[in-house]
């Protein structure tokens, strides 16, 4: 029997999406632009990082080769030790649930509900019902916003009035920021549950609790107690199919929230990428034959992509890459480790939102052959390859590339 480990570097796109122009993202390339900025000395922050982007372990697996495939650039020198390809998203949303559900074999074929970039952004019916049912004195913001800025702007008024800060973005989200102590963390979660119920008829992908601490704009800070209230996937995902066969699915980081806690046998959350890496390694040690470890590393997106912090993103990639050998050292016969992403969030791009990009598919395992997988037509090929590797029936979407990885294929 086999085991499979899939690590999602949240927002680590590699450019080249054929439909990027439709999103205003033509040319967006998270990896390519970070690498170029580093090479040009524009991501030198003494004490944090300096010099060219240093990702020796992901490059060895084939990251730069995958990026060349995605963008049509010339392949770099060297022969990767892993299998590598680039995957194109077929779901229309460039958001986290769309990306992850498609990776797990379920492309999103319906349209999410979005809110217009107007003030107010939320329909009056929704806002009125939220205020009434959650018994809050009103709401603040009610617009498109970036999470850190909106807390700086409305945080003090929120503490004074008890009105939660409600905002959205180009994603299908309702985000609610509230102070962990003045408003209360549990109360914020309860408020989000009311918002979740009211958001269902609007087809909104996620309601997100964004707790923060601090007393003034100078020291307001979001805490790791963020919680996503996602709508459940409309069909069985790889996770449901695996647990339905009695396999264990270990969800690390945000994975549990993204799948509305369906198809998950074992949940591990952690406050940051390095702690999530520890949690992923622990799950790898515990996984038995036929089991699946699915981990999301969210700091890339939340702390650096949306914040358009190139040096921070580069440093986070370098820290992740430096730990990859620990995961590789855990691999035993029958194992497959893959790295991918759910969308882009190019820190050199305009605005603060995600960017439409292809994602890398790189991986390895004892006995799996190295070499190119080409451009995969859907992220679903990743989940289908996991299904194939773990020996369960194919799903309805995507094409497995697992056979290409057999030495005897
Ligand atoms: O600016 P913050 O609050 O981090 O918001 C970001 O986080 C949300 C969820 O990933 C996205 O929709 C994006 O708007
Ligand atoms: Mn994401
Ligand atoms: Mn994001």
TrEMBL record:
Keyword Metal-binding belongs to the record: yes
Names of required cofactors: Mn(2+)
Keyword terms, alphabetized: Cytoplasm, Isomerase, Manganese, Metal-binding
Pathway in which this enzyme or protein is active: Carbohydrate degradation; 2-deoxy-D-ribose 1-phosphate degradation; D-glyceraldehyde 3-phosphate and acetaldehyde from 2-deoxy-alpha-D-ribose 1-phosphate: step 1/2
UniProt superkingdom: Bacteria
GO molecular function per UniProt: magnesium ion binding; manganese ion binding; phosphopentomutase activity
Annotated spans, Disordered: 79-98
Cited SUPFAM superfamilies: Alkaline phosphatase-like, DeoB insert domain-like
Residues where Mn(2+) 1 binds: 10, 342-343
Gene Ontology biological-process entries: 2-deoxyribose 1-phosphate catabolic process; 5-phosphoribose 1-diphosphate biosynthetic process; metabolic compound salvage; nucleotide metabolic process
InterPro entries: Alkaline_phosphatase_core_sf, DeoB, Metalloenzyme, Phosphopentomutase_DeoB_cap_sf
EC number: 5.4.2.7
Keyword Isomerase on entry: yes
Chain ranges of the Metalloenzyme domain: 3-393
NCBIfam families: deoB, PRK05362.1
Name this polypeptide is given: Phosphopentomutase
Gene (UniProt): deoB
């Amino acid at each position: 029997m086999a085991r499979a480990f899939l690590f999602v570097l949240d927002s680590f796109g590699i450019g080249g999406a054929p439909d990027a122009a439709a999103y205003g993202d033509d040319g967006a390339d998270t990896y390519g632009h970070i690498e170029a900025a580093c090479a040009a000395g524009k991501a030198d922050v003494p004490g944090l990082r300096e010099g060219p982007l240093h990702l020796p372990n992901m490059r060895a697996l084939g990251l730069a080769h995958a990026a060349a495939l995605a963008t049509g650039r010339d392949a770099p020198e060297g022969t990767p030790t892993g299998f590598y390809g680039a995957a194109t998203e077929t779901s229309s949303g460039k958001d986290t649930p769309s990306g992850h559900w498609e990776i797990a074999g379920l492309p999103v074929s319906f349209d999410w509900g979005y809110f217009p970039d107007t003030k107010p952004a939320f329909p009056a019916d929704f806002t009125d019902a939220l205020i009434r049912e959650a018994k809050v004195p009103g709401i603040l913001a009610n617009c498109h916003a970036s999470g850190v800025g909106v807390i700086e702007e409305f945080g003090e008024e929120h503490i004074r009035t008890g009105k939660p800060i409600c905002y959205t973005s180009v994603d299908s989200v309702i985000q609610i920021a509230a102070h962990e102590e003045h408003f209360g963390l549990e109360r914020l979660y309860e408020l989000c549950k009311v918002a979740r119920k009211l958001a269902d008829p609007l087809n909104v992908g996620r309601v997100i609790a964004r707790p923060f601490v601090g007393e003034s704009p100078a020291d307001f800070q979001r805490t790791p107690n963020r919680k996503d209230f996602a709508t459940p996937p409309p069909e069985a995902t790889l996770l449901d199919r695996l647990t339905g066969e009695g396999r264990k699915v270990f969800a690390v980081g945000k994975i549990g929230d993204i799948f509305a806690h369906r198809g998950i046998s074992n949940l591990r959350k952690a406050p940051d990428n390095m702690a999530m890496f520890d949690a992923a390694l622990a799950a790898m040690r515990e996984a038995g034959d036929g089991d699946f470890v699915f981990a999301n590393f969210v700091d890339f997106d939340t702390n650096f992509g949306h914040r358009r912090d190139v040096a921070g993103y580069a440093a986070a990639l370098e820290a992740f890459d430096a730990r990859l050998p620990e995961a590789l050292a855990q691999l035993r016969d029958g194992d497959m480790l893959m790295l991918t992403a759910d969308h882009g969030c190019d820190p050199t791009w305009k605005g603060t939102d995600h960017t439409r990009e292809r994602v890398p598919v790189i991986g390895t395992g004892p006995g799996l052959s190295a070499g190119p997988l080409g451009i995969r037509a859907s992220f679903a090929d990743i989940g289908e390859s996991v299904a194939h590797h773990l020996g369960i029936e194919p799903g309805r979407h995507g094409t497995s590339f697992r056979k290409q990885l057999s030495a005897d294929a």
